[in-house]
Design brief:
Elements lengths: L14 H28 L3 H47 L1 H14 L4 H23 L11 H25 L5 H24 L3 H26 L4
Helix pairs in contact: 1-2, 1-5, 1-6, 1-7, 2-3, 2-4, 2-5, 3-4, 5-6, 6-7
Length: 232
């Protein structure tokens, strides 16, 4: 009989970069488009629009990268502290840790004897991994990766921000406001579809959510810029 090994690829493995990617692209689109629309409404010149767009792209990408790196590094520090504490407890009191692990499995529905057997076997094959996964909820899929998050945010922010900049370059300054707003709405819908496909979410819900809130944020920011004759 032929034996086939089926390797599954789970969507949860994308959590680490998907959140940063969607956030970066969404923020790049909205913030840069809002900046361009605000400037175009107040000072409709090609030079002012381009300076605002490029400055927003560069500053936003760096800010996103720095913010993601700092926040995810804080998560990584917390995970490292938990790992060190769990390692110490396993060394100092292994029997208590074994009972604790067995109690976790028992609370999930295993009989007491079976829970103890499972805990014993897993402890033999990697006590620390078992405690990190089943006691603390830390796994390879959810482990904090600061550099990955920072790079993903910077790249996707730049990609999202470049789209309204390119639209502003392609049209006369007098048409920049509505052209950038309309183009951004289309880009947000595409982002919603891509995010849904990557994350396995319903396409319509994801698209409506990203487009609606993105346009609200852009309208408010652009409105303030137009009202006061400056950028926000």
């Amino acid at each position: 009989m032929n034996r086939h090994i089926h390797t599954e690829t789970h969507l949860v493995s994308r959590i680490g970069w998907l959140r940063a990617a969607v956030l970066g692209a969404n923020d790049g689109l909205i913030s840069t488009a809002s900046l361009i629309v605000g400037v175009a409404s107040a000072t409709p010149t090609k030079e002012a629009i381009m300076i605002a767009g490029l400055a927003g792209l560069a500053a936003g990408a760096m800010a996103m990268a720095a913010g993601e790196y700092v926040s995810v590094s804080s998560q990584a520090d917390t995970e490292a502290a938990d790992l060190a504490r769990e390692t110490r407890e396993l060394h100092d009191n292994p029997e208590s840790e074994l009972r604790e692990l067995a109690g976790i499995y028992e609370s999930r529905g295993l009989e007491k004897s079976l829970a103890l057997e499972v805990a014993t076997q897993l402890t033999k094959h990697g006590a620390l991994d078992a405690h990190l996964r089943d006691e603390l909820g830390i796994s390879d899929h959810t482990t904090a990766r600061p550099i990955q998050a920072a790079l993903t945010s910077a790249i996707t922010f730049s990609s999202g921000a470049a789209l309204p900049v390119l639209v502003a370059v392609a049209v006369p300054p007098a048409l920049a406001t509505w052209s950038v707003a309309g183009g951004t709405a289309v880009f947000l819908m595409l982002l919603g579809v891509i995010a849904a496909k990557a994350g396995g979410a319903p396409i319509l819900r994801s698209t409506v959510r990203i487009t609606f809130w993105g346009m609200i944020a852009m309208a408010v920011t652009a409105g303030v810029g137009a009202l006061f004759g400056t950028t926000v």
